[in-house]
Design a protein that fits this description.
two-stranded parallel sheet; about 140 residues; two-stranded antiparallel ribbon; alpha+beta
């Protein structure tokens, strides 16, 4: 984890981390410019990246998040999806703290994102198979 107090330094390191295919989480108090920094970094990305933004709210469901993300990909095989045009996907997920907690205290949209980070994909809700949104471990 990196902690920076100035906006310029945060922006520079965010650019470098995104370029190295890592997850970045910007944290800070309300009004500290987190969203502005990310939008600035995204606008400066090369053409090899496909950029997508999802803004979370208290009404955000895991079904909706999965539907939005899958709509940005094309199905390559029965269990593999890639961004259109062979680009690398960069997602900006804003307001991660907003999804409503369920009766067990978890936030299903965040659990879906965690599953994606752990497995590089998630389960297809219709066919009950794991969908990979990046090269699957079997392709390595």
């Amino acid at each position: 984890f990196f902690f920076f107090n100035d906006t310029a330094t945060t922006e520079i390191y965010t650019e470098q981390i995104v370029g190295s295919v890592r997850c970045v989480q910007e944290t800070g108090i309300t009004g500290s410019g987190k969203t502005s920094i990310v939008h600035s970094v995204l606008s400066g990305l090369e053409e090899i990246y496909a950029q997508f933004t999802i803004i979370f709210s208290s009404q955000t469901s895991s079904n909706k998040v999965q539907e939005i993300i899958e709509s940005k990909f094309i199905k390559r095989t029965k269990d593999k999806m890639i961004p259109d045009g062979g680009k690398k996907a960069v997602f900006f997920l804003d307001d991660l703290n907003m999804p409503r907690k369920d009766k067990f205290g978890s936030q299903p949209p965040l659990e879906l994102i965690r599953q994606y980070l752990d497995y590089e994909g998630w389960f297809d809700r219709n066919n009950f198979c794991l969908l990979y949104t990046s090269p699957s471990p079997r392709d390595s």
